[in-house]
Design a protein that fits this description.
alpha+beta, two-stranded antiparallel sheet, globular, 13 helices, 2 domains, seven-stranded antiparallel β-sheet
Amino acid sequence: MTGWTVTSSAARLGRLVGLRGRWTTPYAAAHAAGRAQRGGGGHGDTVFARAYARRLARASAADAKALATALSEVGEDADVIRRAAASGAPIAAIAALAAGWANLPSTARAVIREPAGSGMGALRYGGVRARQVDRTTCGAAVMAVMLMTGDPLVAAWLMTGRHCGDYLPPEVLRIVVSERPSRTIEERWSALQSVLHDQVRARGLAVLPWPRRFGTPPWRVDEETRFAGVAFRGAILDDTSTDVVAAAVAHASAALRDGIPVPMFTGGDSSGGLSQVMPRHVVLLVGRTSHGFAVYEPGTGRVVPLTEARLYGPGPQEPAYGHWTRACWMVLPQRKSEA
């Protein structure tokens, strides 16, 4: 007998009383599927490229020249500058990153270029495996990888301990102000998870913080994710509904095509006891594959495959779910028409 989950039950109840997320409607799902199939998301058609173009259009002549110079200085790594511009970093910081790019160690440039790695296998930052630092910080580790994907200045700080010009990204500033240890990559990786965990737990219970031992509250991740100016929304999954899962796959695929990773909460169900019916773990969809998705799993610090078919309903323990069995919740970009 198939067990129940809190999220699938809530989604079904919502449908019974006429409430459903706009993202699940046939029109929204079809529109997302169309966006996902537009191609591989070239340099001119990603969330970063569009944000860079908007910033360039608003820039003064001097700032526009500085951005163009920064692009030319990094050569084939121009996407790093587009990401930095999309993050909202000051022009001076972007220029400093570009000016020092060639002098960075190759290992640092590789991480800044692709914080989620370039394929399946262990994800490492220098000699440090990109694992969650304790049993409660899976969500924080996922948010850290996503943050660095959206803001290369955070990735540069992680790998070098240095900042660009006088600018500190907000999360790095909180680490500095709180005087968390940050001398090594390992300490910086731990500190980044710590500040993000504190940030996402704050006001997790209205005006009160979410208890640390319960990990990451799903309904706060959308509000606390900083990524290229994108607004996010939580999407409750009923993984027993073919239409809902198909819509989730379409929206996740469209986001990835646009350069936006997708956090996903996983868990168990009532067949394993009431303690497993809530979302229990967080992973990050970081790419599409021919059969499904590439998934960063913070418990092992690896990028592993997930077949699209596995998202439909219960099954055996899934490595890409952190060895849980059910998909519960996604954090998706929110389009204005679906707000």
